[in-house]
Amino acid sequence: MPVIELRGIKREYRMEAKQGARIKGSKNAVSGKNADSSRNAVVVRALRGIDFSARKGEFVSVMGPSGSGKSTLMNILGCLDKPSAGTYTLDGIETSKSDSDTFAYIRNRKIGFVFQSFNLLARTTALENVELPLFYRRREKQSSMEAAEKRQSAQERKERAAKALGDVGLRERMDHFPSQLSGGQQQRVAIARAMVNDPAFILADEPTGNLDSGMTLEIMGLFQELNRQGKTIIMVTHEPELAAYTRRIITLRDGELVSDQLVKETRSAMDDLAQWKNEHSLLAEGDA
């Protein structure tokens, strides 16, 4: 059974607008293929029937130009939004008709989010940031959807968060605040937070958008290592250079999935990082 399975996913937004007008803030003009207007209502078709599935252990990048539907698809994959039509099954749970409590459970237990802006609490240590998803567990929902678990003690939560930080190479930075960490280290904390509940998959939205080239390669190397350990990762990106580090690339255009390709030769981010460091070391020596 696939970890993720979308069938016939559509997402339409009905907005009030004057006949023939362009929707303010829309990336696409309201016309023909992208929208229909009736009286003062305009329907924007963000997704137009997406079929997509991913098995456990896949590393998939989602690409497409601005306005292609990437963000809408990411919101549906992350259970932040519901489709207008179609079905989305995540780890055996059909999400399309789930209530808000079930959605909250799914987001906490089944999905690990990694964002471009890290989204760490500034006045909270790295360890406490990673512990947050463990605090948000809902025992009542868990017991109705999975076998009941023993409620974790504060010490157990701390040990689990510490292990997650160790897995991303930050065991010695557990007591540091985000302001005391580099951008790459902050993203590692975010990845540890995403993994602490052992989710069905990690959903990464432009995860290296705020990082320089060296830190970008470090984070992509970490994702590749997690993938080798069996983690399922879906990464939204607009950069072909980053997609080359994944194993599969799907491309959206005008709300439709137009390409689904396996990467024949996946690049090694750690090899590229070693080369990058060597080149910059030689440049530094030359400047000296």
What is the H/E order?
A: EEEEHEEHEHHHHEHEHEEH
How many DSSP-defined strands? 11
Catalogue the unreliable spans: 23-32
Order of strands in the sheet with the most strands?
A: 7-8-9-4-10-11
Description of the molecule:
By secondary structure, the chain is an alpha/beta fold. It has one domain (56-287): 3-Layer(aba) Sandwich (Rossmann fold), CATH 3.40.50. The chain contains 9 helices and 11 strands. It has helices at residues 70-77, 100-109, 126-135, 139-145, 154-167, 183-195, 213-228, 240-243, 269-287, and strands at 4-16, 35-38, 41-54, 59-63, 85-90, 93-94, 111-114, 201-205, 233-236, 248-253, 256-262. Strands 7-8-9-4-10-11 form a 6-stranded mixed beta sheet, with helices on both faces. It has a 5-stranded antiparallel beta sheet with strand order 2-3-1-5-6, covered by helices on one side. Helix 5 (154-167) crosses helix 6 and helix 7 runs antiparallel to helix 9. The longest helix has 19 residues, at 269-287. It is globular and about 60 Å long. The model is unreliable at 23-32 (pLDDT under 50).
List the helices and strands and how they pair.
Elements: E1 4-16, E2 35-38, E3 41-54, E4 59-63, H1 70-77, E5 85-90, E6 93-94, H2 100-109, E7 111-114, H3 126-135, H4 139-145, H5 154-167, H6 183-195, E8 201-205, H7 213-228, E9 233-236, H8 240-243, E10 248-253, E11 256-262, H9 269-287
Parallel strand pairs: 4-9, 4-10, 7-8, 8-9
Antiparallel strand pairs: 1-3, 1-5, 2-3, 5-6, 10-11
Helix pairs in contact: 3-5, 3-6, 5-6, 6-7, 7-9
